[in-house]
Amino acid sequence: MEALYFMVSFIASVAGAICGIGGGVIIKPVLDCFHIASVSTISFLSSCTVLSMSFYSVGRSFIARDSKVDAAIGTPLAVGAASGGLLGKYLFGCMKALSHNAETVGAAQSICLAIITLGTLIYTIYKDRIPTMRLNNKTACVVIGLFLGVMSSFLGIGGGPINLVVLFFFFSMDTKTAAQNSLYIILVSQIFSIIFTLMTHTVPDFDPLSLTVMVFGGIAGGVLGRILNKRINNKTVNNLFLALMGIIIFISGYNIYRFLTI
């Protein structure tokens, strides 16, 4: 089982570090497929893995002084995402309490993820034909970040493809610049999310060995992903992103069927 945890977290983190999607958007639905832990536990393990990968990737970029993070935009987005993440956790807790059925919550998450990912895929395919904006208003950035945080936290993916769409459309960033800014947003929001979980004593039951293996896989994936990102161009990153979106939609569709038929 630990081998599965490692491979999923490693591969997801490689892709996440290259594309800026964090990896949680892959880890969460894939582990849901295997039904090896509760929805809450998988979300927590995914968040910890994404935190470890983004911490390495963002930290290494700053140390190497090759970071493309625009602090004037990324920081208010990250602050909003951190706040939205707390709201998303609250909404997830409310749904879990009201449903009394973990499978219903899992189905709701999978449906939302499939819809968001499909929208992201369509936008990315046609983005060259869509006029973009160049927002620099900090209040607007916080509000947009709030929305990103709510969706990411509620879905348990720690970040995800919607970050890139927002950075493409509202801030006219190219693929690689958007990827680094997305990881920065994910890092800040995940730090606050984990702190909130610890302070509110809402950490779900989990196997410490599984967590250790996934965190190690996340860091290792971040190392390889950063190396690969520097060696490939924007077009290749974009194509990889599109392929991942297709895979996530397929997996989410399967999870919807599985959760609703259990």
Q: Termini, distance in Å?
A: 22 Å
Number of strands: 0
Q: What order do the helices and strands follow?
A: HHHHHHHHHH
Helix content: over 70%
**What percent of residues are in strands?**
under 5%
Average pLDDT, all residues: 90
The main sheet comes to: none
DSSP helix count? 10
Subcellular location: Cell membrane; Membrane
Family: Belongs to the 4-toluene sulfonate uptake permease (TSUP) (TC 2.A.102) family.
Organism: Caproiciproducens galactitolivorans
Keywords: Cell membrane, Membrane, Transmembrane, Transmembrane helix
Topology:
Elements: H1 2-19, H2 24-34, H3 39-64, H4 71-99, H5 102-126, H6 138-155, H7 161-171, H8 175-199, H9 208-231, H10 234-261
Helix pairs in contact: 1-2, 1-3, 1-9, 2-3, 2-10, 3-8, 3-9, 4-6, 4-8, 5-10, 7-8
